């Protein structure tokens, strides 16, 4: 996909992919990617995004999760799809990211979990989340996955978004996410078949 200078890329251990114009559609899970992922994750957290941390979280608090994600990508345990944007300031700025984690149990080999859908605050509301999840769907299909699952924090309005792109709620866990001693949120679980 190339729209408004955005390019979708699959992140991997550094294997080159097919060319898309003057840029490669693959992106290495190297230290540059790790730093860009941490920066994006921190920006979204600071803006109040439901990405596993409070808005007050520091880069140092988020760094272990970003490092673990990159390690899992390098090991082939986690897939990542990202949108990058070519700007005058940055050759390829990381704008959005979603993780696809295939099940490791043989009886669940047809399933994968979508984790940590992150869109830069400056680019939210432009359809990038929807487009990114469309790319996740395509990638899952190529991997032989036919069922996607995910969970979201309640009270953020994310239910309408995910239901609008075909996910069906299958359960809620009350008080699953504790934002403060007096503010707990439920976790809402969704599933969807891959494809149209």
From TrEMBL:
GO terms for molecular function: acyltransferase activity, transferring groups other than amino-acyl groups. The keyword Cytoplasm does not apply. It comes from the Bacteria. Residues 92-195 form the N-acetyltransferase domain. Keywords: Acyltransferase, Transferase. InterPro entries: Acyl_CoA_acyltransferase (IPR016181), Bact_Acetyltransf (IPR050832), GNAT_dom (IPR000182). The keyword Transferase applies. PANTHER family: ACETYLTRANSFERASE, AMINOALKYLPHOSPHONATE N-ACETYLTRANSFERASE-RELATED-RELATED. This is GNAT family N-acetyltransferase. It comes from Nakamurella antarctica.
